[in-house]
Specification:
By secondary structure, this protein is of the alpha+beta class. The protein contains 31 helices and 27 strands. Helix 9 packs across helix 12, helix 10 runs antiparallel to helix 11 and helix 16 crosses helix 22. The chain starts with 5 loop residues before the first strand and ends in a 12-residue tail after the last strand.
Length: 944
């Protein structure tokens, strides 16, 4: 396999020379080519033949940093507008074409300094992606109208409610930006802006913003993947080369006033646990001090090996979770510490403890080993981020470097600046920038939030449209001369090139003498190895009286072995530049490890130790008991999670292990004993019930020797039988959880579906894609794009070993709760009543088939797919046969599975929101009397 992506001359961790001294190996080099078109568009090309896919990533150098007062959130609103109709592409057509072509990671994003648009497509569809992106750049204004603007204003306001106002601590975090920056600073407001400013945006404002900032000379495009550079460069010239330049854009020159006196704010939110945010203004991205503070953030709050975790969470147990980050931006950066209190502890305690840790770091500095741990973790995270070509992967990283440094190949310099950081550098940066008088402290406390951003009355927000824009009334018709002259050849989408050949990974298996299955996939693209130990027992194996036991057991694995304490495990993993995690799903318990190629052996030592020899120390059991109770308290603050747990309870009932979330219930957490945990581990963590799935830069022979040495002595034992009983959910079809004052309603429309081994799987995937699995699906087009009820809606089948749930999920405007449910049932009925039209069937079917290669970009993706084969007893060549099975799906088969599995009378509606406001909307829908459940998703206990 020819790899052109990285000339990897070394790897991240320190290695020894012949004399035994520690030396840094050579750093990775990205093989890219950068050119500039005559109109100023920067073109960055990377050839990588790992997979037959191509990532297309465009950055426009505009964000809130360029906004004018009174138009906060405008850059983000405009990001949404770029997905509306253009001269040659009617609204929705681009999404349908791209998804039908097999696109993955199709989206856009707005940062403080830039706006990005990206797609990952099969390599034979590169020209389609360029056609879409070019028409947005060149011909958006030709058909932009008030209807499109009003629709996206509604969508963005839904997004603000969902991601800021209804998100736990969202308004608290927003208050931190308000405290750090003055009102006239572009970083003062949330990137998403305010309701008032979003609503007051005029069509003429949109037109002027586009004309000023969306020209080719203010943009850069990265194309990374299975390309020929010369041919790709010619295609970019064809699609973008004729576009006119916009006026030159001066980079913002905005001075950020320093903070010379501590600023303090208290904000109330619908949360149960206090949280403290501390923020400082720090040097801009890639300037002196930026890397030093990134290392300081890792030392203070980077996982279980960090100082704040060890002191506040582990030792004193006054905090539920801690985090620290250096957020690097163009005008200035911010250093933020946020800590959530453990139940029964106050924000004042947290602040005093944080101050003590900061004082110690200022006065004594970090140790050499702490700095080395932080560097190794940051470098591994950076290296793993470029495993992926699209999304937030390699293409985006090159555009990021290009924006902030002018050098797309800055990766090597980025690693070098990290490696140069010393303990003295960290101490100096902390002393210089993280001073008490130079910070803002925002305390989030339980209470009723005060939103100083009321929506304007509809009559007060009538659009103001210039005379030049009044003609633009019908999307899809050329009604304005626009900026660029028409070019008739652009009217039709380009044809796909020859379909590339691809064989999905199958993996090679071998079995140890004790019965442990090992599944291996060799992938030398990067010096990384992803390892997953998968046990075929998850929450579905919980006893009836102890929901959450599987998750508690998995959590305890990291908390000490016969020879390693919990802090020692965390420190050793971080020192290796590795990442270790545990968790559960309905059908599995998992231990996941990401390590460098050079450190896989010692990392596997730790992994094997926690799996084979966990000690379950009594003190650690009590620590984790308190932690899980805290997680459960936080879970109650999140409406979408509450809806998911309430839906599980309504479908399966309180006597079924699937009737709960992975945490279980507070009574179960408080009553579980050490013997219960040890018993679950002994019964289920046996080699015949497990598989070790390894994907990465390691040969089969080397892996076999490593695994034999570390897992070969795992005592053989018989795998326990499955024990799930029949579901016994509620007869009620309407379930409501009251959250007084909530501005949105978290909805779940759900029923019990089907098991993973169903022969209907291919038809179900195609049917669900058309209904709600794709962005261009019927549900999303109706409720988001047409009605503006929600920021997004999706549907899926959770396919377990025994029938899992079918779920339609969305957070909708409170005043549109009833209307949203009505439209959902309407779309479900339409899917049952008529076969998919030929074009819709082809798009949904092709989306499933052609997107498959994009689902195998990273070692973790490959490992998860191979683990699925083991968990569900699928044939080894399952993924090789799957494309043909999907291609064979017919419209009658889609309608048949819709009728079989989408039965309206069996669908339950779960609504989490303001009961007083939403129940009158839901009662006329014929769902019967509402059943009220608590924020744990359970029926309230009967009164004595």
């Amino acid at each position: 396999m020819k790899i052109l992506l990285l000339a990897l001359l070394g790897w991240v961790c320190m290695v020894a020379d012949d004399a035994g001294a520690q030396v840094a190996p050579p750093v990775p080099v990205v093989a890219f080519k950068k050119t500039t078109l005559a109109n100023g568009l920067q073109v960055i090309l990377v050839e990588d033949r790992r997979l037959p896919i191509v990532a297309v990533n465009i950055w426009y150098h505009v964000g809130p940093a360029n906004e004018t007062p009174g138009l906060t959130g405008f850059a983000h609103l405009f990001e949404h507008m770029m997905f509306a109709a253009t001269r040659h592409i009617p609204r929705g057509m681009a999404d349908r074409l791209l998804e039908g072509a097999g696109a993955t990671d199709s989206n856009g994003g707005t940062g403080y300094d830039s706006t990005s648009y990206y797609d990952t497509v099969p390599s034979n569809q590169l020209e389609l992606a360029l056609w879409v992106h070019a028409d947005r750049m060149g011909y958006l204004l030709d058909v932009l109208d008030q209807k499109a603007l009003a629709n996206q204003q509604d969508v963005v306001r839904n997004e603000r409610r969902q991601t800021v106002e209804e998100e736990p601590y969202g308004v608290v975090e927003e208050a931190l930006a308000h405290a750090l920056f003055p009102k006239d600073h572009p970083y003062h407001a949330s990137i998403i802006g305010s309701h008032a400013d979003i609503q007051s945006a005029r069509l003429e404002d949109v037109r002027q913003f586009f004309a000023r900032y969306y020209g080719p000379n203010n943009a850069s495009i990265v194309i990374a993947g299975d390309i020929d550079k010369a041919k790709a460069r010619a295609l970019v010239e064809r699609y973008f080369g004729s576009f006119r330049r916009s006026p030159p854009v001066a980079r913002p020159a905005i001075a950020t006033p320093p903070i010379t006196r501590e600023r303090r704010v208290v904000v109330h939110d619908r949360v149960e646990l206090p949280r403290v945010f501390m923020g400082w203004l720090t040097p801009p991205a890639y300037q002196a001090g930026d890397a030093e503070l990134a290392v300081a953030a890792e030392i203070l709050g980077g996982g279980k090996s960090s100082r704040l975790y060890k002191t506040l969470v582990y030792e004193r147990q006054i905090a539920q979770e801690v985090d620290a980050s250096q957020n690097s931006y163009g005008l200035t950066s911010t250093f933020v510490i946020d800590v959530t209190a453990r139940s029964g502890h106050s924000a004042r305690e947290l602040e005093a403890a944080i101050d003590a840790e900061l004082a110690q770091l200022r006065e004594l500095g970090p140790s050499e080993r702490e700095v080395e741990r932080a560097r190794n973790s940051l470098e591994t995270a950076l290296l793993s981020s470029i495993e992926k070509l699209g999304g937030d992967g390699l293409a985006d990283q090159l555009n990021h470097y290009n924006q902030y440094t002018g050098d797309p190949g800055y990766l090597a310099k980025d690693l070098e600046r990290l490696r140069r950081v010393t303990p003295a550098d960290v101490q100096r940066a902390v002393r210089t920038y993280l001073r008490q008088q130079a910070r803002a402290v925002v305390t989030g406390l339980p209470g009723k939030p005060v939103l100083n951003d009321p929506p304007l009355p509809r009559a007060a927000r009538a659009p103001r449209v210039s005379s030049a824009s009044k003609a633009g009334s019908t999307a899809g018709a050329a009604t304005d001369p626009g900026i660029n002259p028409p070019e008739p050849w652009r009217a039709h989408p380009p044809k796909a090139g020859p379909a590339p050949g691809f064989t999905l990974p199958q993996g090679e298996s071998f079995t140890l003498a004790n019965g442990l299955t090992v599944i291996h996939h060799y992938n030398p693209a990067l010096p990384l190895v992803s390892t997953q130990l998968v046990v075929r027992s998850g929450s579905a194996a919980n006893p009836d009286n102890l929901p959450g036991l599987a998750g508690f057991t998995a959590q305890m694995l990291e908390e000490g072995t016969a020879t390693r304490s919990a802090p020692q495990i965390a420190d050793e993993i971080a020192q290796l530049g590795a990442f270790l995690d545990t968790g559960t799903s309905a059908d599995a318990s998992m231990v996941s490890l990401l390590s460098l190629r050079s450190t896989i052996a010692p990392a596997l030592d730790v992994m094997a130790d926690i799996v084979l020899r966990p000690a379950f120390p009594t003190a650690e059991v009590e620590r984790q008991r308190a932690d899980r109770v805290g997680e459960l308290i936080q879970q109650r603050d999140d409406a979408e999670t509450v809806a998911a747990v309430a839906a599980a309870g309504a479908l399966y009932g309180s006597k079924h292990p699937k009737g709960y979330g992975q945490l279980g219930t507070e009574p179960a957490i408080r009553s579980v004993t050490r013997d219960d945990l040890v018993g679950f581990w002994r019964r289920h963590y046996v080699p015949e019930n497990a598989a070790l799935v390894v994907s990465g830069d390691i040969s089969r022979g080397e892996l076999k020797a490593l695994v034999e040495a570390r897992f070969g002595a795992w005592p053989r034992a018989k795998a326990p039988p499955d024990r799930s009983g029949a579901p016994a959910g509620t007869r009620a079809r309407l379930v409501v959880v009251d959250q007084p004052g909530a501005g949105q309603t978290a909805l779940r429309v759900t029923s019990i579906g089907v098991a993973r081994d169903t022969p209907d799987f291919p038809a179900l995937q195609v049917m669900n894609g058309a209904l709600g699995g794709m962005f261009s699906s019927r549900l999303n087009d109706n409720l988001r794009e047409t009605k503006g009820y929600t920021y997004g809606i999706h549907s899926y089948f959770r396919l377990d070993r025994t029938p899992g749930p079918f779920i339609i999920a969305a957070s909708v405007r409170r005043d549109a709760t009833g209307a949203s449910v009505r439209e959902i049932f309407k779309e479900v009925g339409a899917m049952r009543d008529a076969p998919l039209p030929a074009a819709e069937l082809a798009a949904a079917r092709d989306a499933q088939v052609l997107s498959l290669p994009g689902q195998f970009e990273t070692n973790a993706d490959i490992g998860a797919s191979l683990a699925e084969i083991y968990l569900y007893g699928l044939p080894p060549d399952y993924y090789r046969r799957l494309p043909d099975q999907l291609r064979a799906v017919t419209a009658p088969q889609v309608q048949a599975v819709a009728r079989k599995y989408l039965q309206p009378e069996q669908l339950k509606v779960v609504a989490v929101g303001d009961r007083r406001r939403i129940l009158p909307q839901l009662q006329p829908l014929g769902l019967g009397q509402a059943e009220l459940r608590d924020s744990d998703g359970q029926l309230p206990a009967p009164r004595p």
